[in-house]
Write a structure and sequence with these properties.
InterPro entries: F-box_dom (IPR001810). By secondary structure, the chain is of the alpha/beta class. It folds into 2 domains: 179 residues, no CATH class; 32 residues, no CATH class. It is 25% helix and 33% strand. The longest helix is centred in the middle third of the chain and has 15 residues. The structure holds 2-acetamido-2-deoxy-beta-D-glucopyranose (3 copies).
């Protein structure tokens, strides 16, 4: 039996190619775009990509995440150093949303993820990232290089979530370095066990939501430097420079702030 005839997508007219692309998911688009210079060039011309929001998730693997507006599926392209996972596809469901994760093995996952993200950012024309979720004590040896890379390759991140796996690891310096180098626009949620009272990381200004757990180290003065404050029941109100009000709630595990 003859092998199936390949579909000559590159011979189609541009509008027809675009229709074919609309039927592809982001992982298929990436796979197509890395075949050759020509396929990359074609992928770059597609106009409908802005509908995807994009995230970077760093934990045991380094993932690039896509989420379409409207459809309840998110796709993860995960770089792993575990060869047994190569080519595996995991499917999960969370809050009615389907999560599809494709694994790719690499001897040097950090390096390959960096290259892939650069490529993807170019194809999907993204200057900013919607979500950054980092377990700061994963890839410890490459902590600085990952942050420097992010600093150069994305303008800002909208939502940022910081985690830590092992409370024994001191991540104070790492976290301060991250906060100094990455611009966070609307939300920072922080689950780290920072305990160093000298922690001198900069907390981003103008956030709509700030949530810090395990925050024994955290001096309120750090937040109060620029604003007018008064205590109200159930929280501390801060009138921000832009006229909005932020309310702080102190919990036994930490505190949170929301702007309204
Ligand atoms: C990181 O990966 C570990 C192991 O798979 C998992 O237990 C943990 O929940 C993950 N952390 C985050 C923040 O996703
Ligand atoms: C895309 O490429 C990855 C990595 O090579 C592979 O595991 C996956 O099966 C491919 N996915 C599709 C939908 O072609
Ligand atoms: C990077 O991680 C190492 C531990 O592997 C730590 O000693 C160092 O302080 C960290 N540096 C920064 C800037 O995060």
């Amino acid at each position: 039996m003859n092998p199936p005839k390949p579909f000559p997508i590159l011979c189609l007219l541009f509008l027809a190619i675009e229709e074919v692309f609309k039927a592809l998911d982001p992982i298929e688009i990436i796979n197509f775009s890395i075949i050759s210079k020509r396929t990359k060039g074609i992928a770059k011309q597609m106009s409908f990509f802005p509908k995807y929001s994009m995230g970077l998730f760093i934990n045991e693997t380094l993932d690039i995440m896509f989420c379409g507006t409207g459809d309840m599926v998110s796709w993860f392209y995960a770089m792993t150093s575990d060869i047994k996972m190569d080519g595996k596809i995991e499917e999960d469901e969370s809050d009615g949303c389907i999560i599809r994760r494709v694994f790719k093995y690499s001897k040097d996952p950090v390096e390959e993820w960096k290259q892939l993200f650069k490529h993807v950012r170019e194809i999907f024309k993204k200057q900013t990232i919607d979500v950054l979720r980092i377990t700061v004590d994963s890839f410890l040896g490459q902590n600085v290089s990952i942050i420097e890379y992010l600093k150069v390759n994305m303008k800002s991140v909208d939502l940022c979530y910081l985690f830590q796996t092992n409370y024994i690891n001191n991540v104070d310096k790492h976290t301060a370095y991250l906060l100094d180098n990455i611009k966070i626009i609307s939300e920072l949620t922080h689950y780290l066990y920072t305990e160093n009272y000298d922690f001198d990381g900069k907390i981003p200004k103008n956030l709509q939501h700030l949530c810090i757990y395990n925050s024994q180290w955290f001096g309120f003065e750090r937040l109060l430097i620029h604003d007018e404050t008064k205590e109200i029941s159930g929280g501390i109100d801060i009138r921000k420079i832009d006229g909005k009000t932020a309310t702080f709630f102190v919990h036994y595990t930490g505190f949170s702030m929301s702007v309204h």
